[in-house]
Amino acid sequence: MAQKKISFYYKNICEDIIGSEHGISQSQLDDLAKKTGPAIEEVNRQRKAGIIPYRDLPYRKDYPKQVKEAARQIRGECENFVVLGIGGSALGNIALQTALNPYLYNIDSRQRKGPRLFVFDNVDPLQFGGFLDWIDGQLDKTIFNVISKSGQTAETAAQFLVIRQILMDRLGPEGYKQRIVATTNAGKGTMRAITSEAGFRSLEVPDGVGGRFSVLSPVGLLSAAVCGIDIDALLAGAAAMDKRVSETDFFANPAAVNAAIQRHYYQRGKRISVMMPYSYALKDLSDWYRQLWAESLGKRTDLDGRQVFVGPTPVKALGATDQHSQVQLYREGPNDKVFTFLQVDDFGRDVVMGDCPPSAPELGYLAGASMAKLLNAEKLATEYALVKDQRPCLTVLFDSICPETIGQFIYLYETTTSIAGLLLHINAYDQPAVELGKEATFALMGRPGYEQMADKIRPFTKQDSKFVI
Ligand code: PA5
Question: All domains of the chain, ordered by start, with CATH?
Fold first, then answer.
């Protein structure tokens, strides 16, 4: 059987479809091909030189082996698997679970191939407290996977300290250590030190792979494997996409074409990039993409140290739901967006509508039709309506939603981000602007060493009654 594929479709950005004011002509496309060629070569060179090790994750033999062994043990030891992490240490886990396990996975044990999965990526007392109430009698049937490359991230550290105390109190030092699996830096860092001291089982966050590029490492693979997702097929999908996104022929390389189009429109004032899946299963991949795109491409300085304040804004919308929320703006508001639809050819199942009541013959067109047909018709209809208003539209077409196509999608967007970073002439792999907020949190929470910063923060954060209405 031929491998299921994703395809990248870009006709609806062309000048002959949406007009010259907003479309791209063939000569402009040829020009993009010329200008993007060096970026493709450079990404390929960086990859060979080991500078962007995320590109090698589909080929690592050690990680899947370790993950499968850990998953085999964990599946026999728990009914609940709880991930504690944030940003790149959580969004990939959520995306894989939503994409590749049933909608009611946690609720319906008949649909479940493993323990329930919970991913906490916040420090909300109502949310976490409510969960603690529920999990209370089941701690001995629960494994917590704390994922933090550094171990210093305040949110993850906070969750960990809560859970650690509860487990120590309930299960004692021996029982407690059996209930935690750490995924963290191999040799250094706060979480590695805690792990060594406590004797937790652990997996590694690969060196040189930033959180948002780490979903195909043990960071994202463990919860997937524990919940019955075929991680070999996921990685095989990524490897299949690797061939396509390494292609030096621009027009055969979907990552290059995508990055070039996005960058081109950014320069023409379309600075918002909307991703709109017409599939609930793909909705959290859009959240994963938002982080990848925003943290990688939103930068103050370029590679020469010049201030550029660059970065397209990623926006997530869900079809058909957001047709009734956003599309009015998308069609009649400013033409400042590029749209990427995610469309699924074969959903693997369908739901057929019943007869319509005699009093409502106007619903007759729906009777006997299927939801898959309706959802895809709505995608085409929305695209048609946007194109009529000269809005540029791209589509990622999924043959079906399966580990192979999800692996392809992840790898496509990671490489698109690398190429877009080069086209924007910025470092796509750091996130210096996240630091100040993290440090200010340390200062406000009284972490030693941050006292001076706390004094500086006070004038901005102390409520001034003059401005309260
Ligand atoms: O993409 C990134 O690098 C970030 O989103 C990190 O993943 C996030 O800040 C969590 O960091 P850590 O894994 O060190 O706790």
Answer: 6-48+233-424 (3.40.50.10490), 55-231 (3.40.50.10490)
